[in-house]
């Protein structure tokens, strides 16, 4: 139980703190967070259905491809939708940040936490024992994915309002999403240490790029 609570706290701590802050201080970002959670829940639901019906669901690279495509379609649809309601830099930045927080909360509470509570397969035994293995999945995967989602949503919301010269940055953020999905699978079937190292590296790149974009587009 202690491992369960600790892993949930580590995985969801950042996004839940922001969500609580939005609820107390910023209704616009709270609404954006709710929208982000709903859109991400739709994406996870579609992925789950695909997982159940595909005859080759055991082929994990296929699931990565489907997960990547579905989540990116949902994400960009949501981001494009906010263009109809926000025009100013500060509004776009805040709403994009809110969408990322909402998606991160949904990812952790709907995907990572149930995995901790329900998983019993052999893949859970990849690190020392099932308890610590599941802690790694929930705590580190959830935390790293949350950081990526929050930063990338914020950056992409700004990039989509800019001209075509900035498309390279969008491509990089999308590529990093594919990389973090691959790193998550590596935790199970290659090396948990290699997988987590790659996820942390992706997070560092994502955070640095986000600060660069925020600085570059501050006016």
Q: End-to-end distance, in Å? A: 48 Å
**Content of β-strand:** under 5%
DSSP helical segment count: 7
- Mean model confidence by pLDDT: 76
Shape: globular
Assign a percent range to the helix content.
Answer: over 70%
Rg of Cα set: 17 Å
Order of secondary-structure elements: HHHHHHH
Number of E-type strands? 0
Q: Major sheet, described briefly?
A: none
Kindly name the structural category.
mainly alpha
Low-confidence stretches: 120-129
How many domains would you count in the coordinates? 1
Explain what this protein looks like in three dimensions.
- The structure is a single chain.
- The chain has 219 residues and is mainly α.
- It has one domain.
- It is 83% helix and 0% strand.
- It contains seven helices and no strands.
- It has helices at residues 2-25, 27-53, 60-82, 89-118, 130-159, 167-189, 192-216.
- The longest helix has 30 residues, at 89-118.
- It starts with a helix and ends with a helix.
- Mean pLDDT is 76; it is low at 120-129.
Could you give the topology of this structure?
Blueprint lengths: L1 H24 L1 H27 L6 H23 L6 H30 L11 H30 L7 H23 L2 H25 L3
Keywords: Membrane, Transmembrane, Transmembrane helix
Brief characterization of the structure:
This protein is 83% helix and 0% strand. The protein is an all-alpha fold and 219 residues long.
Descriptors:
mainly alpha
